[in-house]
Amino acid sequence: MRKHTTVIRFFENHRWLLRDPRFAREASFRLGTARRGLATTKTKAAQLRMELVRRQRQAARQRFLASVERSPEKAICHVFGSYCSQALQVARCESNYRTTATNGQYLGIFQMGSHERATFGHGPSPLAQAKAAFRYFVLSGRDWSPWSCKPWS
């Protein structure tokens, strides 16, 4: 970009070269080449900037999802949104946020039974378990009645 800009500035400061019949043809050719090159380089730079921003956003999202995958509290709040505090209270009471918690047929952070796991899903990660519990929560009318622990008790 610097090379093209330098050529363009040179001809802006030496306009007589564009008017002088001895140099006009070559000067016009060089000036046109520099202008086209600068336009092409600017376009490529803009595309590269957009690609860099896209990659940075993607990397930030990957880091966020990785942190959500490791932390039950973050996963619950990410999935339950405005019901975060209630869901945290239920999960703490049900399993103390342990993904491996068991009580007979009841497993995971939200201690979902085998029928509920088959219906709403289940997985080893906090995010998968929170998503399954949220599906169950929504289907039950955004009500905590399916769980023995309630956020208000």
Structure characterization notes:
The chain has helices spanning 2-13, 16-19, 24-70, 72-80, 84-95, 114-120, 126-139, and strands at 102-103, 106-107. By secondary structure, the protein is mainly α. The chain has two domains: 2-68; 71-139, Lysozyme, CATH 1.10.530.
CATH secondary-structure class of the largest domain? Mainly Alpha
Radius of gyration: 31 Å
Q: Classify the fold: give the CATH topology of the largest domain.
A: Lysozyme
From the N-terminal CA to the C-terminal CA, the straight-line distance is 67 Å
- Percent of residues in beta strands: under 5%
Tally of distinct domains: 2
The CATH architecture of the largest domain can be named as Orthogonal Bundle
What global shape is seen? rod-shaped
* Helix content range: 55-70%
Strand order of the largest sheet: 1-2
Mean pLDDT: 94
Which class best fits the helix and strand makeup? mainly alpha
